[in-house]
């Protein structure tokens, strides 16, 4: 039985199949949403003018994208402060959150290099002091005290469910999704509905928890790419859940796509080297799923499994390109005014 909190994490370190070396798709997604992050960060800064600004990155993983997000926020705040000519600089506190199995040690080992690069990039500028720490734990639980976070960020993470739906749990011996590990064309609608219900439950809980932790006027900037514990919702499903939870105002929502192959930046429909693209896609997926698969099936099958996966992806790409779809959401905490006793 898969225990998501115990078994799930990206492949650590800096090896050939590590997440650090195979997170180019995630970086593309961050670049695509850079303008949204810029907008919401400036709004929090100018709207609240807090003495200290607290930012949490949920599902941060351990690759270069984590500190790229930190760097981007520092850049935005630095520009704001220099533009306004503020001499009393705020302090920035970054909380980097992921499940306990995440390679936090690798992340922290890169901090010294990050700090030196940041000093070089901002030479001659007045830069706010910043502090970075890790917060291991599931974001489907409370992580922070009430009203302490000014800005939440989550990039390509909230498609991961808290668990596989209980009705598909191996202990109950109900195998309703035979020969599949996720939703496919042959998956019964009853199983699809189980995944939909699990996502609705998880995302509603996530919004409720973040509402408690977010200061009034704070924001959430989420990048969603939604018998693996994951589900890819539609824009309509995300919008419906936000409205039903009724704790946030929808500031922005849109969908964008990028090619399966993280090294293919072309806009056309033709894949020039399907075999190479198949291997690139397989490395990207392996960096994310290997620990989860290994915890259930063991490590002996991994090389053969992903070689076969690369071959099947290549065959698909000979016919048509594959696209990852990402949903970008920006939410504002609702303000409720009580009148009378």
Helix content: 40-55%
Number of strands: 7
Beginning-to-end CA distance, first to last residue: 52 Å
Instruction: Briefly note the CATH topology name.
Output: Rossmann fold
Class from secondary-structure proportions: alpha/beta
GO molecular function, one term: methyltransferase activity
InterPro entries: MeTrfase_7 (IPR005299), SAM-dependent_MTases_sf (IPR029063)
Pfam families: Methyltransf_7
Helix-strand layout with pairing:
Elements: H1 4-7, H2 24-32, H3 34-48, E1 52-58, H4 64-84, E2 91-98, H5 104-109, H6 111-121, E3 130-136, E4 149-155, H7 189-213, E5 214-224, H8 235-245, E6 248-259, H9 274-297, H10 302-319, E7 323-333
Parallel strand pairs: 1-2, 1-4, 2-3, 4-5
Antiparallel strand pairs: 5-7, 6-7
Helix pairs in contact: 3-4, 7-8, 9-10
Characterize the structure shown.
- The chain is α/β, with parallel strands linked by helices and 341 residues long.
- Strands 3-2-1-4-5-7-6 form a 7-stranded mixed beta sheet, sandwiched between helices.
- The protein starts with a helix and ends in an 8-residue tail after the last strand.
- It contains 10 helices and 7 strands.
- The model has no long low-confidence stretch (mean pLDDT 82).
- The protein has one domain: 3-Layer(aba) Sandwich (Rossmann fold).
């Amino acid at each position: 039985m898969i225990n998501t909190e115990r078994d799930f994490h990206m492949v650590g370190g800096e090896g050939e199949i590590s997440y650090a070396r195979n997170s180019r798709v995630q970086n593309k997604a961050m670049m695509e949403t850079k303008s949204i992050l810029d907008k919401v960060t400036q709004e929090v800064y100018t709207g609240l003018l807090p003495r200290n600004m607290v930012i949490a990155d949920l599902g941060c993983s351990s690759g270069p994208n984590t500190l790229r997000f930190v760097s981007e926020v520092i850049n935005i705040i630095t520009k704001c402060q220099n533009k306004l000519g503020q001499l009393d600089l705020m302090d920035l506190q970054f909380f980097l959150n992921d499940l306990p199995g995440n390679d936090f040690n690798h992340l922290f080992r890169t901090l010294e290099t990050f700090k030196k690069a940041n000093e070089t990039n901002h030479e001659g500028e007045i830069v706010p002091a910043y502090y970075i720490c890790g917060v291991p734990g599931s974001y489907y639980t409370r992580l922070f005290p009430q009203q302490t976070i000014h800005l939440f960020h989550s990039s390509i993470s909230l498609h991961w469910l808290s668990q596989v739906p209980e009705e598909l749990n191996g202990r109950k011996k109900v195998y309703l999704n035979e020969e599949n590990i996720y939703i496919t064309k042959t998956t019964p609608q009853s199983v699809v509905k189980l995944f939909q219900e699990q996502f609705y439950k998880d995302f509603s809980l996530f919004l409720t928890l973040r509402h408690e932790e977010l200061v009034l006027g704070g924001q959430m900037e989420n990048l969603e790419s939604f018998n693996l514990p994951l589900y890819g919702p539609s824009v309509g499903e995300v919008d419906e859940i936000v409205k039903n939870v009724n704790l946030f105002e929808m500031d922005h929502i849109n969908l964008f796509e990028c090619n399966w192959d993280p090294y293919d930046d072309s806009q056309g429909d033709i894949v020039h080297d399907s075999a190479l693209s198949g291997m690139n896609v397989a490395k990207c997926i392996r960096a994310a799923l290997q620990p989860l698969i290994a915890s259930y099936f063991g490590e002996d099958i991994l090389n053969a499994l992903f070689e076969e996966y690369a071959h099947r992806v290549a065959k698909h790409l000979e016919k048509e390109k594959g696209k990852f779809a990402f949903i970008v959401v920006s939410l504002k905490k609702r303000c409720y005014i009580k009148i009378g006793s």
